[in-house]
């Protein structure tokens, strides 16, 4: 299994000490996290995208560029790029630039986002989100793979013989599809033969498993091999301690503080308490043995090769404690038990050696990241 540390850059007062970070302190904390993640052996670092308090992550390409300058090996992910509201020309330019500045370490996860506040900011309605995402995604793919693109659609002005600059550093920037609530996202990913990343953050396992099962079914329909599916999954919150009881006691103030925010309430999580979430949901709260047991259970259900975790909301010393515990007690065990072939190689700079698989219904050829 491979591991991603990520941040949505939520900037709330510390639930125990009451300490409030300035925006500048939070930005520096995220950069420190990414540097430490590389030092500890994480495979990737991700930054989400949100457009409203308490999140400061309105510009992931800028944050990831700062991280790229301080790191050398770690993959850089967007979690997610809210493509349903963004101009694909701007996205193509910004992320191709980041691809160069990172030396080809960039991968993006696209999605429609889960915060309705961004729709009025960017001039679309919530009802349009899926159609908008699909249209903008198809244009982004063309802008990165073609020159002199001529295009017309519903969500931006027409293009006539446009070639965006710079061209990506990688032959093809890997694209994942964020999956949280609808088969529209898994359908789009399956059609293009591209990997999915299940948010797996707010609901019982069965909801996310149904979407992953749908993804595999549709992969087969479009002529891709479901056995080769590449799947990532989130894990809710992380808090490790020597015993389950200690972890619950220490984490409860953070859980209660976040779940009282409007952002958390929008997700309409069905869990009635922290204990309910631990029993029936994705949070990783407990001893190393308990956390390992839960990760194994989700892997059995999802077949995911990648797991993402976050330590947002904790003070810096607790972040350090949790990341060290995770890399000492969890990562080595799961690397032995669950092999993962992704991210074995460097940037995708030479497409010539990779085969292209024909698929039904004029679906695009399978993505290079899918052949690992």
Structure commentary:
It is a single chain. The chain is of the alpha/beta class and 372 residues long. It has one domain (2-370): TIM Barrel (Alpha-Beta Barrel). It has 12 helices and 12 strands. The protein has helices at residues 23-40, 60-70, 88-101, 118-122, 129-145, 183-192, 205-221, 244-259, 262-266, 274-280, 288-302, 316-337, and strands at 2-7, 44-47, 75-82, 106-111, 149-151, 159-162, 175-179, 196-198, 231-233, 238-240, 284-286, 306-309. It has an 8-stranded parallel β-barrel with strand order 1-2-3-4-7-8-9-12, surrounded by 5 helices. The radius of gyration is 20 Å and the shape is globular. The protein starts with a strand and ends in a 35-residue tail after the last helix.
Task: Offer a quick outline of the entry.
The protein is 42% helix and 14% strand.
Furnish the topology, listing elements before pairings.
Elements: E1 2-7, H1 23-40, E2 44-47, H2 60-70, E3 75-82, H3 88-101, E4 106-111, H4 118-122, H5 129-145, E5 149-151, E6 159-162, E7 175-179, H6 183-192, E8 196-198, H7 205-221, E9 231-233, E10 238-240, H8 244-259, H9 262-266, H10 274-280, E11 284-286, H11 288-302, E12 306-309, H12 316-337
Parallel strand pairs: 1-2, 1-12, 2-3, 3-4, 4-7, 7-8, 8-9, 9-12, 10-11
Antiparallel strand pairs: 5-6
């Amino acid at each position: 299994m491979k591991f991603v540390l990520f941040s949505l850059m939520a900037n709330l007062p510390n639930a125990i000490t009451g300490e409030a970070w300035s925006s500048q302190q939070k930005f520096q904390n995220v950069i420190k996290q990414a540097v430490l993640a590389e030092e500890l052996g994480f495979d990737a670092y991700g930054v989400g995208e949100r457009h409203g308090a308490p999140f400061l992550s309105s510009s992931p390409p800028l944050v990831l560029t700062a991280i790229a300058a301080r790191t050398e090996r770690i993959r850089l992910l967007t979690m997610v790029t809210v493509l349903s509201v963004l101009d694909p020309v701007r996205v193509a330019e910004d992320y191709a630039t980041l691809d160069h500045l990172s030396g080809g370490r960039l991968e993006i996860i696209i999605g429609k986002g889960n915060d309705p506040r961004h729709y009025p900011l960017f001039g679309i309605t919530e009802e349009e989100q899926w159609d908008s995402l699909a249209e903008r995604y198809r244009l982004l793919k063309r802008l990165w793979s073609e020159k002199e693109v001529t295009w017309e659609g519903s969500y931006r002005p027409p293009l006539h013989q446009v070639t965006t600059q710079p061209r990506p550093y990688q032959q093809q920037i890997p694209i994942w599809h964020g999956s949280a609530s609808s088969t529209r996202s898994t359908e789009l990913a399956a059609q293009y033969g591209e990997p999915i990343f299940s948010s797996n953050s707010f609901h019982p396992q069965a909801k996310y498993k149904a979407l992953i099962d749908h993804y595999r079914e549709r992969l087969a329909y479009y002529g891709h091999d479901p056995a080769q599916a590449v799947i990532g999954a989130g894990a809710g919150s992380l808090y490790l301690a020597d015993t389950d009881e200690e972890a619950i006691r220490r984490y409860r103030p953070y859980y209660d503080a976040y779940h009282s925010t409007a952002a958390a309430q929008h997700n309409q999580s069905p869990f009635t308490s922290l204990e309910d979430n631990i029993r029936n949901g994705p949070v990783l709260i407990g001893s190393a043995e308990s956390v390992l047991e839960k990760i194994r259970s989700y892997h059995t259900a999802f077949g995911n090769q990648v797991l993402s975790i976050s330590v947002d909301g904790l003070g810096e010393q607790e972040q350090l404690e949790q990341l060290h515990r995770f890399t000492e007690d969890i990562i080595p065990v799961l690397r032995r038990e669950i092999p993962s072939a992704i991210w074995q190689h460097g940037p995708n700079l030479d497409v010539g050696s990779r085969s292209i698989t024909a698929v039904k219904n004029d679906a695009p050829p399978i993505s290079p990241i899918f052949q690992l």
